[in-house]
C-alpha cells in the first residue's frame, strides 16, 4: 500500500514539473536585408537585464529574408525578445556617434524601442512571435 501511494505521489510531482515548461517558442524574423551576417536573438525573462543580458540566446547565420529560430525547454512565464542583424559579424549592435543603431533590429510586440514592459508577453503554450526588423 505504501509503495502504491509513493508511486502516485511521484507521478503527480513529475506531471506538475512538466507543466512548468511550455513546449516551443518560435521566433520568426522578417525584413532581413541584405541577406548576410548573423541574426542575434535574445529571450529575456527580466526587465532588469533587458536588452543586454539574455536568458536564452541564439546566433544564426542568415540565409534568407525571413528566418526562424526555435527555443525549446523554456519555463512558462513572461518574456521579451530582442533581435538584431549583425551584418559585420562582430557580435554587437553597431551604433553611430549619437547611439542610433546602424544595423537592423526589432523587439517582440512590434515595439520600436528597447522597453521590456512594451515587449513582454506570456509564454505558457507553444507560441510563434513575429518580429520585423527596422
Question: If you had to describe this structure to a student in words, what would you say it looks like?
Answer:
The chain has 134 residues and is of the alpha+beta class. It has a single domain, classed as Immunoglobulin-like (Sandwich), CATH 2.60.40. 16% of the residues lie in helices and 36% in strands. It is built from two helices and eight strands. The chain has helices at 2-18, 116-119; strands at residues 24-30, 38-44, 56-61, 67-72, 77-86, 105-107, 121-123, 127-132. 25% of the residues are buried.
What would you say about this model in short?
By secondary structure, the protein is α+β, with helices and mostly antiparallel strands. Helices cover 16% and strands 36% of the residues.
Helical residue percent band: 10-25%
- Under the CATH scheme, the architecture is Sandwich
Q: Note the total helix count.
A: 2
Please state the overall shape, judged from the principal axes of the Cα atoms: globular
Largest sheet geometry: 5 strands, antiparallel
The secondary structure category is alpha+beta
CATH T-level fold name: Immunoglobulin-like
Distance between the termini: 63 Å
Number of strands: 8
Q: What string, H for helix and E for strand, traces the elements in order?
A: HEEEEEEHEE
Mean pLDDT: 88
Poorly predicted spans: 4-18
CATH class: Mainly Beta
Amino acid at each position: 500500500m505504501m509503495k502504491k501511494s509513493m508511486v502516485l505521489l511521484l507521478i503527480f510531482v513529475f506531471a506538475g514539473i512538466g507543466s512548468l515548461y511550455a513546449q516551443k517558442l518560435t521566433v520568426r524574423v522578417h525584413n532581413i536585408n541584405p541577406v548576410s551576417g548573423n541574426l542575434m536573438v535574445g529571450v529575456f525573462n527580466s526587465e532588469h537585464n533587458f536588452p543586454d543580458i539574455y536568458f536564452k540566446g541564439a546566433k544564426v547565420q542568415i540565409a534568407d529574408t525571413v528566418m526562424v529560430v526555435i527555443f525549446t525547454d523554456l519555463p512558462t512565464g513572461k518574456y521579451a525578445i530582442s533581435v538584431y542583424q549583425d551584418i559585420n559579424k562582430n557580435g554587437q549592435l553597431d551604433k553611430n556617434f549619437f547611439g542610433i543603431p546602424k544595423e537592423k533590429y526589432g523587439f517582440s510586440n512590434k515595439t520600436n524601442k528597447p522597453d521590456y514592459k512594451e515587449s513582454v508577453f506570456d509564454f505558457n503554450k507553444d507560441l510563434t512571435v513575429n518580429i520585423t526588423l527596422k
